[in-house]
Design brief:
The protein contains 2 helices and no strands. With about 100 residues, it is mainly alpha-helical.
Length: about 100
């Protein structure tokens, strides 16, 4: 039983890792697009550049940080719920098959 749980945990870690990468990439694109539409300027590529005002650099960092974290929390929680639901259905099906053949 412990081996089965370890495999499921490993599967979830792999799914979560890939999901995290995809989520971060998509969130960065969406937030960058929203920033450009809201400010009329491209997102700061180099926050250390003196050509970008301190306020703009900090504002973009805050928007990006909060946006990325919120996106990752929402996606990870949704994925975990769906994974657990799928796992419950799969386990119920195995139990039902075991009861039928017994």
């Amino acid at each position: 039983m412990a081996d089965k749980t370890e495999k499921q945990d490993l599967a979830w870690k792999a799914i979560g890792g890939l999901l995290g990468l995809a989520t971060a990439w998509a969130a960065k694109k969406v937030i960058g697009f929203a920033w450009e539409k809201a400010t009329g300027r491209k997102p700061p590529a180099d926050s250390e550049s003196l050509e970008i005002s301190l306020g703009e650099a900090i504002g973009y960092a805050v928007v990006m940080g909060v946006g990325m974290q919120v996106t990752q929390i929402v996606v990870a929680r949704t994925a975990k719920k769906r994974y657990n639901a799928w796992k419950a259905v799969k386990d119920a099906a195995r139990e039902a098959a075991g009861e039928i053949t017994s």
